[in-house]
Amino acid sequence: MGRKGTEIANLDVEKLIEMLNAALAEEWLAYYQYWIGARLMEGPMRSEVETELLVHATEELGHAELVVDRIIQLGGTPILNPDQWVEKARCAYESPEDPYIEKILLQNLEGERCAIQRYDEIASFTEGKDHATHQMAITILNDEIEHEDDIEGWLTDLERLKEDYAKLRV
């Protein structure tokens, strides 16, 4: 970070870099979870949801780029080895063993809720102290909230589809 940027940052930069590295690990795991889940997914609404999950995956990759850039700007070193992703991440990666769309969506929903918590913490930690990181955290937080809303909507649609199907069988 530049001299003036360091001067105005009124926080523990090392702690922030640790938080950002954890977020970076979580973004890479979220990217892969979305990407592989979209590829394997089976069930109703698959073609519509698959396209959107791939968009979410691309957005998670974009978040990783923002976080890496900020870590470097702060004078830190981003996680260099993918083996550390699971170790550093608080948000779990769940293998899509069951490719049914509802299971995939529920896994992604848990990941989004964890990401919302992560970026809320980073935003709170940096508020009024590190404007650049705070702005980045809020931007990513808004994306994660939108992802959660998308997934909840698809799950509601699936539930309605199951209810309608049950009525037809009676």
Chain-averaged pLDDT: 94
Question: What's the helical proportion of residues?
Answer: over 70%
Task: Report the principal-axis shape.
Answer: elongated
- Which class best fits the helix and strand makeup? mainly alpha
The total of helices stands at 6
H/E element sequence:
HHHHHH
Question: What assembly state would you assign to the polypeptide chains in this entry?
Answer: single chain
Total strands: the figure is 0
Q: Major β-sheet, in short?
A: none
What proportion strand? under 5%
Can you walk through the features of this model?
This protein has 6 helices and no strands. α2 packs antiparallel against α3, α2 packs antiparallel against α5 and α5 runs antiparallel to α6. With 170 residues, it is mainly α.
Which features does this protein show?
single chain; 170 residues; mainly alpha; 6 helices; 78% helix; elongated
What's a quick, concise take on this entry?
The chain is mainly α and 170 residues long.
Layout of helices and strands, plus pairs?
Layout lengths: L2 H6 L4 H28 L5 H28 L10 H5 L12 H26 L4 H39 L1
